[in-house]
Amino acid sequence: MKRDLKLILAGLAVYLVVFGLKTIGFLGDFPMLVINLSLVYMILTSSLNLINGFTGQFSIGHMGFAGIGAYISGILTTLIWKLSIDTPMHTRVPLFLVALTLGGIAAALAGFLISIPSFRLRGDYLAITTLGFGEMIRVIINNIDYVGGPRGLLGIPRISDFTIIFLITFLTILILRNIIYSSYGRALLSIREDYIASALVGVDTTKYKMFAFTVGAFFAGIGGGLLCHLIKIAHPTQFGFMGSILLLVFLYVGGMGSLTGSILAAFVLTVLERYALPVLFSSMSSFTLPRWGFEVGQEWRMVLYSFLLIIIILFRPEGLFGGKEAKILIPEEDR
Amino acid sequence: MGAVLTTTELTQFFGGLKAVINFNLELPEGALWGIIGPNGAGKTTVFNLVTGVYIPTKGSIYFKGEEITKLKPHEVISRGVARTFQNIRLFGNLTVLDNVRIGFHLKYKARYFDVFLRNSFYDREEKRIKGESIQLLETLGLVHRAGELAKNLPYGEQRRLEIARALATKPRVLLLDEPAAGMNPREIDALMELLLNIKREFGLTLLVIEHQMRFVMKICEWIKVMDFGVTIAEGTPSDIQNNAKVIEAYLGKGRVEL
Q1: Measured between CB atoms, which of B93, B102, B125 is closest to A186?
Q2: Sign of CA dihedral A199, A204, A206, A208
Q3: Taking all residues of chain A, what is their mean pLDDT, rounded to a whole number?
Q4: Rounded to two decimals, what is the model's pTM?
Q5: Cα torsion at B197, B200, B201, B203 (round to 10°)?
Q6: Residue B202 and residue B200: Cα distance in Å, rounded?
Q7: Whole-number Å distance between alpha carbons of B56 and B59
Q8: What sign for the dihedral angle of Cα A243, A245, A248, A249?
Q9: A198–B116: do the CB atoms touch at under 8 Å?
Q10: Which member of A183, A196, A323 has the closest CB to residue B105?
């Protein structure tokens, strides 16, 4: 731990600055929501990076894992324990953390299951399988009345505050970093580079694919739990295909195999989406194209993302930080 | 001296293609044997069978008396067999040091929680592996390249790095698939010296597939010749050089008029 003092101090500094700005009222409710959202997206994107970027598997159902985490933790806090924002802090927070962990574990189990086809499937075939899995989660949730079905799980208390989210995001990134720079991380990278050579230098590729999916899904579940306790709702559409695609966009823009990239892309794109896009489109929000008769509005955001993705793939296929890492994230002995 | 690697009636069919037929091998401990034969003779398939890439259609493989026929590649490697590849298969986007460190993965004792927390045990293990890797790179004369990406190395050094990575798994038997391919005579001489050195230093048994006769005839103690999956001859280099069947396989049949 001592060796990571710089990283911990940097994290603490960021935390204190944001917390201070919030306390003096410079950052209001909306900016804080955006910051919290971007932190949650950092968790989701970096955990996807472990599977796609570092291990070289192609999972496009990552939001499904987040959905499991969100619903499990949401059911626990909202429907079973009936927590609310008025519940005293010393019961609310520990119970929430238990709910988050259980959500993470449930997602990890799902990740473990979905990794089984990955032993035999590669590339686009695996992608289709994970895609189907994500959709399955969405459809199942849609049909369970207990959690509100297509209306979504409503009335979730906003327990995720900046302190909790920041701490968990920091720990997630630290643990992922620790994995990546260990012998396990190198085993994952070797699977990405050449899975046959990897097996023939003694890496149990089956075990490590399973490991990547399980750990990645665990953190996605945690992220999902934080998300629904932030925006006070868990809705099936959030965790479907479009959600997973959004994470993939973050991942590719930031760069495969770079935690730095995932962190920055999640932050910048979330802020852009919440600030720049509304400004950009406010002048033309919902005007009707006379000739074709359809309305133009916020839906443009997906067009913009797709455009961004095309630009990135054309001019910088490895993403902004592909394979590179900020110095502070690299352990001293590996610099 | 007992055989360290034994195959009995090893046979592999790919659909109708008989890639290897009844391949028998009794490789003595500490030996340096060669397998030669024209392209498509089934030499690499033998390596793939021994290292668990394919499960043989028929026959069995024993390593130090223990059957390893149906083991997965990583299980075979963990018992002490290592190999290199005909077409170099390095982890190109990783550094030279990381390539070797992955080879040490089998001997890594830190468990998941040590890694998550980076505790002192994790530290010791990482330090040990890094130290041993650097040592290995020194032995193979690659230590000055440790920080470079494997794909940026010149060809000869990539070949050496593959050997270093294989040695990192601490093998007893090392299978080399055309280690001298694409090398000029001087490089081949250096390679032979290197192989004899590491054989002595690590107490290895070597089995080499090679086309370069200069190489095979000079350092192999015993040679097996394959053609169309069948072992057509075996013996000492001088036996092989004078074997009519071998000459026929390489040069074709013809009338010899004197």
Answers
A1: B102
A2: negative
A3: 89
A4: 0.92
A5: 140
A6: 6
A7: 7
A8: negative
A9: no
A10: A183
